[in-house]
Design goal:
alpha+beta; two-stranded antiparallel ribbon; 2 strands; 34% helix; disordered C terminus
């Protein structure tokens, strides 16, 4: 198993199957779902981050893709705070469809 997949799976287990950002239960990484597990680097590899257990967390595809689609992506820590604030206000939701896009 490639190292990043193992790190993702280890993070999934360490986090009890919950997304690091929204804390919802995730589907396995091979599922076709917006809740499927993805690997998220806390410090991006292009910024010197490594594939290590302290730098990789498990995030659902929806949170991961929403963070990276922003014009100026927030840092993982800032995005975590942003998502949790939206959840507290009842303004964080999954799309009405769930086909993995």
């Amino acid at each position: 198993m490639p190292k990043l997949k193992k790190l993702r799976d280890d993070a999934y287990n360490r986090q009890d199957g919950r997304c690091w950002y929204c804390s919802r239960l995730m589907s396995p990484a091979d599922a076709i779902s917006s809740s499927r597990c993805t690997a998220e680097h806390l410090l991006a590899r292009c910024e010197g981050g490594k594939n290590t257990s302290d730098n990789v967390v498990a995030a659902c595809w929806l949170c991961n893709s929403r963070r990276h689609r922003r014009k100026v992506p927030l840092s993982p820590e800032a995005y975590f705070i942003h998502v949790r604030a939206l959840i507290a206000k009842g303004r964080w939701s999954e799309p009405r469809w769930d086909n993995g896009f």
